[in-house]
Amino acid sequence: MESVAVKGEGLSLGYLKGKQRKVILEQLNFELKTKELTCLLGPNGVGKSTLVKAMMGQLIPFEGKLELKKKNVSEYAHDSRAKMLSVVLSEPHLPGNLTVEQLVSLGRTPYLKWYGALDTSDKAAVNRALEITQVDYIRKELVNEISDGQRQKVLIARALAQDSPVMILDEPTAHLDLINRYEIMRLLQEIAHAESKAILVVTHDLEIALESADQFWLLSCGLPLITGKPEDLVISGQINQLYPSDRYEFDLLRGRVRLREESSNLEIIGDQDLTFWVKKALLKAGFQQLDGPVLIQSNPILLRYQELEFSRLDKLIDFLRKN
Ligand SMILES: Nc1ncnc2c1ncn2[C@@H]1O[C@H](COP(=O)(O)OP(=O)(O)OP(=O)(O)O)[C@@H](O)[C@H]1O
């Protein structure tokens, strides 16, 4: 099986204002691969949706090549492109009077005959999509009467029913709680691997993306697109290009962004994970320096400072403020 599903080469994308070109992205090179979950990350306004629009055939590149399964994206007729690429947008307008099953069935639209009814293979594709995404049990519920997390799974089911080798999702975890964010990304990773799909997810959710993505594409203003395994980009420090400001940095140990640590002379002794949180609380409370070390004893937690013992950080901080 050809592993490159979408390929961009020397792509320049943007919008026309009259006859004037407003270039948003230049010299983009990438390969979206089958059996991989790729996350596209970048700050607001950098051009992520612009790239997605181009992949959907809604935006003709100013320059360069954009191929979907080795054929120029703009050469596809609407229906044949829909068989190749499905899209889940972040804020879709859904007809609320449809049931989950009816909405997922809409994924079969590109395959329907002129009389518009689902045949046995369409029904099988819908059932399979409902099962894979585990929303079978709400198939008769109305779309506007289910939770945000369920709705997101239903939209993924509709894209699955469309049976295209490429799936693109724009912020599928927006508005979801932490567990559901993990759930959705884990589901997408499983689908990419088990169903042999090339999946591109646009997201701002770096922590969750790090847990689930096989590839990262990092877009930052005025720089070339960086692609690679998330862990490689972390190890090489390229991940920091997402945060151009000096105030932020990627915390290698904890796998997330943090405010660059203020320089401090705090001496905190104890288990490494615990010292991290004690230091964080002291810095937040405005203490960059103390008159001696803070010793942390675990099980039960006890903080020792100047021969005094504190069972909680707020008690230690209260003491420091008063003295
Ligand atoms: N239809 C349009 N016409 C002209 N300029 C546009 C149009 N749509 C978007 N832009 C511009 O293109 C740039 C990139 O926008 P885009 O929506 O692709 O960013 P994004 O990375 O998806 O942002 P976000 O994370 O906020 O969704 C922005 O400067 C925006 O103003």
Automatic annotation (TrEMBL):
InterPro entries xref list: AAA+_ATPase (IPR003593), ABC_transporter-like_ATP-bd (IPR003439), Metal_Ion_Import_ABC (IPR050153), P-loop_NTPase (IPR027417)
Domain of life: Bacteria
GO molecular function: ATP binding; ATP hydrolysis activity
Gene3D superfamilies, per the entry: P-loop containing nucleotide triphosphate hydrolases (3.40.50.300)
SMART domains: AAA
Annotated keywords: ATP-binding, Nucleotide-binding, Transport
UniProt keyword Transport, yes or no: yes
Keyword ATP-binding on entry: yes
Ranges where the ABC transporter domain occurs: 6-246
Name assigned to this protein: Iron complex transport system ATP-binding protein
Organism: Algoriphagus hitonicola
